[in-house]
Amino acid sequence: MLSRFVKFLRQKLLLVIFIGFVFGLLAAIYSNKAIEATSTNESCEMCHVHPHVTESWKLSVHYDTRVGIQIGCVDCHLPPKGEGYLKEKIKASARDAYGFFFKDSADFNWEAKSSLDQAKHHVFKASCVKCHSNLFPITLNRKGQDAHLYYTQNEEELRCINCHLNVGHYDPNAIHAKNVEFGSAGNQNAEKFVEPATVTTHENYTEQIPGTTISFNMKAIPGGSFKIGSPADEQFRDEDEGPQKTVNISPFFMAEVEVTWDEYLAFYGATATEGRTTDTEGTRASADVDAISGPTPPYGQPDQNWGMGGRPAITMSYHSAETYCEWLSQVTGKTYRLPTEAEWEYAARGGTGTPYFFEGSPKDFAEKGFLGKIFGKSSDSINNYVIYENNSGLKTGLPDAVEANPYGLKNMLGNAAEYCLDWYAEDAYNTLQDGTTDPKGPASGEERVIRGGTFKSPVGEVRSAARDHTQSVAWMKTDPQIPKSIWWLSDCNYMSFRVVCEFDEKTGKK
Predict the structure, then answer these.
(1) Among 68, 157, 420, 466, which has the minimal tally of Cβ within 10 Å of its Cβ?
(2) Could you give the number of structural domains in the chain?
């Protein structure tokens, strides 16, 4: 009796195992079919309701390839199978489905999502390398060989899309070459200024650049004293912002806004050459001290296709900014330069000692939970004065998008970061003496101070006391030129600068 029962159980167990095997096999087959069915371009387009992406893909070199292979959505936006394909597919599907059912596609910032900062989260280097296994085909030209050689030497830091961002989605405005036409546009028939502005007193004035149609406003910044840095209890404070010291600042002039593209292109048009008189250290090789050699043509479009005109000029190097000031001094007969860090913070504060020159604390404007949004302080006040991560759309804005600070200066906080004259040191304020007049920072260093935050910055990084510094290596990592450009940044789209003019014998000081 017992043996018959055991035999019965064995038969049932085998039946269960067989049924489980069949169901498992069917599940595997149909799961794979489901994965394949939801990996087609058509299935992707069901959730991705921005048709311009499909249109730009069909215009790209990935759609109509020279060998007749059509590269689909998952070939770039998912890693190869066996390298995390299923995991990333589940994540991407959940994200896309959530966006499709619970978000309004009209609110999406498609331009920002197409930027390198966003694209690097959705394009996999392993997928690029799977197809492009030979980086040195016989058809590759010399410049391409140099660039790919540079890539192989820096694979840990570089991604394919650092240089080839638009191969999958065609952008007619993207230039992946030396932009020899850069700066050639403009109204050549407009009446040009003959003389610069005459300044006899410490008052606001409008500078006129001789030989151009360009003018810009300068604000008279009164002398005084203030506490540089931030108190130990300031929200989002960094250690390099202290200890606070009281310093004295002499009167000077400062530009109302960051140097605009209109202003910078006046300099570019007057001085730019095809790399003739500067060595690798940025020293002018010309014996004629009056012959200022300006930037060589940039690679790509330095304004990121956001527009030029009154927007801040961006992506130029510190050397480029210094040379601009030298040129501006020469053509106007005044003493223009970059601001010291102390001058910059003094001007940014506009006579205030709080985190911002307007009412509110950093945590008032930081991201809040549900109750915080109901009972917290409105972000309207910061939106009136600062272009930062929450209102910028991830690009620079025009000066009239914000209101001025008490000294009449716009975009001192946010929009684009600004170079300062000082070398950066984390402990710079430790050695600063109370009562110092017009401090200029350390005598030497490796990186320069930058101030003001950017259009990418959170609220803590656009405080008046917030400090940062240049990143000479990181900002040039995808420039394959030997030597690298001394004029343009290949990997930083948020740097600009603002000029100051000294109140000296050239501007009416007795």
Answers:
(1) 68
(2) 2
Q: In angstroms, rounded to a whole number, what is the distance separating the alpha carbons of residues 460 and 10?
A: 69
Average pLDDT over the chain reads 86
* Helices 318-332 and 261-271, packing angle to 10 deg: 80
Give me the pLDDT at residue 31, please: 63
Which backbone phi and psi does 24 adopt, to 5 degrees? -65, -40
**Distance (Å) of CA 141 to CA 137, 158, 213:** 9, 21, 41
Residues 168 and 224 in one domain: no
Tell me the average pLDDT across 299-323: 95
CB half-sphere exposure, 359, CA atoms < 13 A: 4
Contacts (Cβ under 8 Å, ≥6 apart) of 143? none
Write the CATH number for 168. 1.10.3820
173 contacts 68 by C-beta, under 8 angstroms: no
- E strands, 350-443, where? 417-423, 436-437
Starting from the edge strand earliest in sequence, which strands make up the sheet with 224-228, in order?
224-228, 245-249, 436-437
Query: Is residue 201 exposed (0-12), middle (13-18) or buried (19+ Cβ within 10 Å)?
Result: exposed
Cα–Cα distance for residue pair 140/122, rounded to 1 Å: 27
**Residue 477: which domain range?**
205-507
Phi, psi of 248 (to 5 degrees): -105, 140
| Sole residue written with tokens 């546009």 | 185
Does residue 372 surpass a pLDDT of 70? no
What's the whole-number mean pLDDT along residues 454-465?
97
Q: What are phi and psi of 506, to 5 degrees?
A: -80, -15
Model-level pTM? 0.86
**Residue 279 in this model has a pLDDT that exceeds 60:** no
CB atoms within 10 A of CB 430: 11
Do 82 and 213 lie in a common domain? no
Q: How far is Cα 476 from Cα 345, in angstroms, rounded to an integer? A: 28
Residues 478 and 398 grouped into a single domain: yes
- Same domain? For 153 and 55 the reply is yes
Both 151 and 297 in a single domain? no
286 pLDDT tier (thresholds 50, 70, 90): very low
Q: Is the pLDDT of residue 451 over 80?
A: yes
CB 246 within 8 A of CB 434: yes
The per-residue DSSP string of 116-174 comes to: HHHHTTT--HHHHHHH---SS-TT--HHHHHHHHHHHHSTTT--GGGT-TTSSS--TT-
Burial of 173 from C-beta contacts in 10 A (0-12 / 13-18 / 19+)? exposed
3-state secondary structure of 309: coil
Question: What's the whole-number mean pLDDT along residues 57-78?
Answer: 83
Tell me, what amino acid is at 147? A
**Could you identify the residue written with the tokens 């101070």?**
449
Burial of 428 (0-12, 13-18, 19+ CB in 10 A): buried
- Measured from the Cβ of residue 190, the count of other Cβ atoms closer than 10 Å reads 9
